[in-house]
Amino acid sequence: xxxxxxxxxxxxxxxxxxxxxxxxxxxxxxxxxxxxxxxxxxxxxxxxxxxxxxxxxxxxxxxxxxxxxxxxxxxxxxxxxxxxxxxxxxxxxxxxxxxxxxxxxxxxxxxxxxxxxxxxxxxxxxxxxxxxxxxxxxxxxxxxxxxxxxxxxxxxxxxxxxxxxxxxxxxxxxxxxxxxxxxxxxxxxxxxxxxxxxxxxxxxxxxxxxxxxxxxxxxxxxxxxxxxxxxxxxxxxxxxxxxxxxxxxxxxxxxxxxxxxxxxxxxxxxxxxxxxxxxxxxxxxxxxxxxxxxxxxxxxxxxxxxxxxxxxxxxxxxxxxxxxxxxxxxxxxxxxxxxxxxxxxxxxxxxxxxxxxxxxxxxxxxxxxxxxxxxxxxxxxxxxxxxxxxxxxxxxxxxxxxxxxxxxx
Length: 409
Ligand SMILES: [Zn+2]
Prior knowledge:
Blueprint: H1 3-11, E1 16-24, E2 27-34, E3 50-63, E4 66-79, E5 83-86, H2 100-112, H3 115-122, H4 126-140, H5 144-147, E6 153-161, E7 166-173, E8 178-184, H6 192-205, E9 208-211, H7 216-224, E10 229-232, H8 234-255, H9 259-266, H10 269-273, H11 281-293, H12 295-313, H13 319-333, H14 336-347, H15 349-357, H16 362-378, H17 385-396
Parallel strand pairs: 2-4, 6-9, 9-10
Antiparallel strand pairs: 1-2, 3-4, 4-5, 6-7, 7-8
Helix pairs in contact: 2-4, 4-17, 8-9, 8-12, 8-14, 11-12, 12-13, 16-17
This protein binds zinc ion.
C-alpha cells in the first residue's frame, strides 16, 4: 500500500486526497486536497471559479498519539450567488481551524466530562471550545423548529450566566426532559422568540407551564398563551424559604457585638442549609445548641424543613391543607423574612397546589435544573452567549454525537 493511501485511510474523512506528509517537530503534517478539482462555494456548495490561494491548517484527531494537522492551500472563489467566499473543503467548516472529527470529539467529551479533562486531553484552550460547540450543535442539533414540535408541558427558568449577572431563559420540555430553547435575558421579552418560533398551532397545543414566581414569565404567558395552566414548581418555592432563613441568620449575626458569638452564629450556615439526616456530628451539635439558645432561628429552620417534607410526601388530596397549615404556622410565629416569603407563597397558592395536582414529577425538574447548573458553571470562560446556549443544548438537548472511531475508507 502506498503511504499516501495508508494515511488517507487513517484520516477517515470522505472525499479527501492525501498528497504528502512530513513531521514538523513533534507533529505530523499531512498535505491534503478535496477529491474534486473545481472550487466550490463554502456558503452554498455551488461550483465557483477560484482565484488566489492561501495556506491553511486544520487540527485533526491524533494519529497514533501524535498531534496531527491537515495542510492545504485554500482558494477564494467567486460564487455567482454569494459573492467572494472561501472555498468549501470536505473536512471542515469554513470558519474553523479544526476538522469535523476533531470538533465532534471535543463536543462529545464536553457532554461527558469537565473542562480540565477536555483541554488537557485534547490540548486546546477552553476558550476555543465554545466556538467548536456552536458549530457542532449547528451540524448535529437539527432544525431548531423541530425541537419545538409536540410541546405540551414546559418548564421555563432563568439561569445566571457568568459572574456579571447575565441571564438566559431556558424552556424545557417536561415530557422529553430536554432543553428546547435558550434565549438571552430573563424578562418577558426573552420569550418572544420562543412563541414566534412555536407559531399559533404550537402555542395552542401547550397545556402546562411550570415557572418561578418572579412574575415576568407569568406576564408573558398571560399575553401570549392565556389558556396555559401556570404552575409554580417546588424548587422555586423552597428556594424562597431557604433564602429567608439565611436572611434571618445574617440579620442576627449583624446584631451581635461579641466576636465569639458572631463567629458561632456564622458557623451555623452549613447546618441550617441541610436536612437533619444529612448532617455530620459537628453540624448536628451546632443545631442542638441552636435549639437550646436561639429558638427563633431554630424554628425558622424547622419551617424550612417542614415545607420540604410537605412537598416530599404531597398528594393532590393533601397538598392544599398541608400548605395552608404551614402558612398559618409561619404567619403566627415566623420572623419577618419568612413572613414575606409566606406572603409570596400565599399569593401563588393555587399555582403551587396545581404543581402537585398535575403530577409533574420532581425528579425531572430537579434533575434537569441541576444538570443545567453544572453545565453553566462549566461554561464559565466562554466569552460568547451563543457558546453557552450551544453548550446547554449540547448537554441537555438530547443531541447524539458519533464516536470518533475511524472506519478505514
Ligand atoms: Zn455560493
